[in-house]
Amino acid sequence: MNINCSYVPNFDGYSYFSLRQPWKPRERERGEERRNELRLLAKGFVMEEMEMDSIECVSSSMDGIEDEEIQSSVSSHQQYSSAKPHPNVVPSGIAPTSVHELLECPVCTNSMYPPIHQCHNGHTLCSTCKTRVHNRCPTCRQELGDIRCLALEKVAESLELPCKYYSLGCPEIFPYYSKLKHATLCNFRPYNCPYAGSECSVTEDIPYLVTHLRDDHKVDMHTGCTFNHRYVKSNPREVENATWMLTVFHCFGQYFCLHFEAFQLGMAPVYMAFLRFMGDESEARSYSYSLEVGGNGRKLLWEGTPRSIRDSHRKVRDSHDGLIIQRNMALFFSGGDRKELKLRVTGRIWKEQQNPDGGVCIPNLCS
Fold first, then answer.
1. Using CA atoms in the order 170, 176, 177, 183, what is the torsion angle rounded to 10 degrees?
2. Is the N-terminal amide bond of 115 cis, ω within 30° of 0?
3. Separation between Cα atoms, residue 99 and residue 79, nearest integer Å
4. pTM above 0.70?
5. Whole-number Å distance between alpha carbons of 294 and 130
6. Which residues are bridge partners to 277 per DSSP?
7. Is the dihedral of CA 345, 348, 349, 351 positive or negative?
8. Phi and psi torsions of 182, nearest 5°
9. Cα–chain-centroid distance for residue 42?
10. With contact defined as beta carbons under 8 Å apart, do 238 and 264 qualify?
11. Among 117, 38, 44, which Cα is nearest to 81's?
12. Rg of the chain in Å (alpha carbons)
């Protein structure tokens, strides 16, 4: 027996099918139970793919009525199923969107991780922002309470998403809850600005940072792998966190940052020079550099591997990974009456290359 059904929008935002012929009391009761099941399915499941598919509407047998197909053309291109949820269907009344957007906190716009909170009206937000909004839903202003959105947390567990930095070249795909840990270590993540003279918050790729250092911080830019710098200070007794202008070198197709500053090492005032590589640590290990300071027939020499700018300026400085000169020695190298710092620091950068015959590294010096 063919039964006609029509599409009827309901007041609560969901849509159901209404049979045109009257039901018996028992049939009406079963129909109400079915509608309640649909409401729970619509509110409890979030589908991964949100595009509407063409599917069939099948009625359940009711008191002797045989199972038959009920064809209902809601529109010329869309059909809905009341038999079971389809993995590519969004309940009627819910605008098509992506699962990524459903897992996005409406306050900070970051991806939400357990515990995911929701208000009595179903609006969600992350646990960090819950305290920021003073336990009030930012969407409907209702009190949040301590309601967890377990359904959304379960959906997140089943997802595999591309890395946060896929647009920067990372090809990796991770389970949702592993993605956050990977993002903190991803080789494609942006770099922090290496400028040490101020707390600069810029994070970008290397080409952008080079332009930023040149145009915004006005640093000295040099081409070549050798340098000869003179650092002057009229009152060398004042060494409390003094920082000289950063110098950027371009050689071997890479960029290097030369730092020079004064600070207290314990109770002793010292000067320190060190080099940082604008790239990852794995690339930095392919290069070496030397720093030399001297005067009055004496000299100090330092050789090492440049540190990646992944390590902050403060971390490198506090690890003492560079040429360290005590103030008295620096004034001795300056000559004269030792009342003014005039320190000349020379150095070079080279790339270690594998010797195909001997199997050892030999320096490749730029011209």
1. 20
2. yes
3. 22
4. no
5. 59
6. 256, 308
7. negative
8. -65, -40
9. 32
10. no
11. 38
12. 34
End-to-end CA distance of the chain: 91
Phi, psi values for residue 252, rounded to 5°: 55, 25
Query: Helix 150-157 and helix 176-183: axis angle, to 10°?
Result: 70
Please write the tens of the pLDDT for every residue from 263-314.
888 888 899 999 999 999 999 999 999 999 988 888 899 999 999 999 988 8
Query: Comparing C-alpha atoms, which of 321, 295, 296, 299 is closest to residue 308?
Result: 321
Q: Left, alpha or beta for 134 (phi > 0: left; psi -120 to 50: alpha)?
A: left
Q: What six digits make up the tokens of 213?
A: 């250092």
3-state secondary structure 244-285: CCCEEEEECCEEEEEEEEEEEECCEEEEEEEEEECCCHHHHC
SS3 226: strand
pLDDT digits (tens, 9 = 90+) for 221-269: 999 999 998 888 887 666 566 778 899 999 999 999 999 988 888 888 8
Q: Is 163 left (phi over 0), alpha (psi -120 to 50) or beta?
A: beta
**Tokens standing for residue 73:** 């053309």
